[in-house]
Amino acid sequence: MTISGPELTLTEGLKLIRKSLRACGTTSPIPHPKRLGRREIARMVSVFQPRMLQGRLAEDECHIEELQAAIGHGEEPRMLDPITVWWGGDIYYVVDGHHRLTAYDRQKVTTDIPVEVFEGTLDQAMAHSAALNSKNRLPMRLEDKLNYAWRLVLVSSLSKRQIVDSCGVANGTVGEMRSVKAKLLEDPATTVEDLQSLSWKDARMNSRGVAAKELTCPEAAVRKRAERYVKSILRAVKDRPFVDPEAFAMALVMLDERLPSVLMQTDAWGDAFRETVEGLRNDLESARDLAALWDNEDDY
């Protein structure tokens, strides 16, 4: 049985799955199961989880708690919507439903879990995972969409149109990703595996001759303190800032009217604001591309 888990990198995960497919074949068991035991379902987060957890911990945690409440007691659970799985040669992998699987695990559910089998290649399964995550209850942010599209450009043979449709990014952006990939690979010392360790933002910077920014010691220390604050905030307010932003914003002003101004002057909030603007720009570009997408011969 394939050993898999979130600790594996994208390169390691793809190698492991492709090795299993070569050894065991790509044909999934017939008939497709409607339910699977927990030990028959594996995670490969680096390959099949397009949405990063950073920056949305409160929302993720509250969503999982809601799912746990819906499941109820682990010995007599109420089943959730089927988890989408894909046959990877020797085991089924979660393509969509990581939160549901976590909720089942936390409730210690031992009975078989409802599943829906996705048929297709590894490339198609990765694209399907992106498409489902773009539309589910906790949709991907722009950064996640761009990084996953960049991943598909690097490791798959999917067409430009397939990547655009799956990740919800602009046609021109995928074209730029292809150009950046080709430019960076002009260096004989650079491999596709090297590029897999780069985010799309860093890859684009490198293609322009700008080294990706690394955390300095002071910045690393700030991040560690921030991670401790995150735990305290999660315990105190959970997802209240997200579901009731107006009241939470007012609470910050009531706490100290200078606080919003101080926060807006920080690098962290400045970066977040710029990413929001970039997201609006990407949405506009995607809308402009939509009408012309099907007539573009370069999409194939």
TrEMBL record:
Domain of life: Bacteria
InterPro entries: ParB/Sulfiredoxin_sf, ParB_N
SUPFAM superfamilies named in the record: ParB/Sulfiredoxin
Residue span(s) of domain ParB-like N-terminal: 37-134
Protein name: ParB/RepB/Spo0J family partition protein
Species of origin: Nitratireductor kimnyeongensis
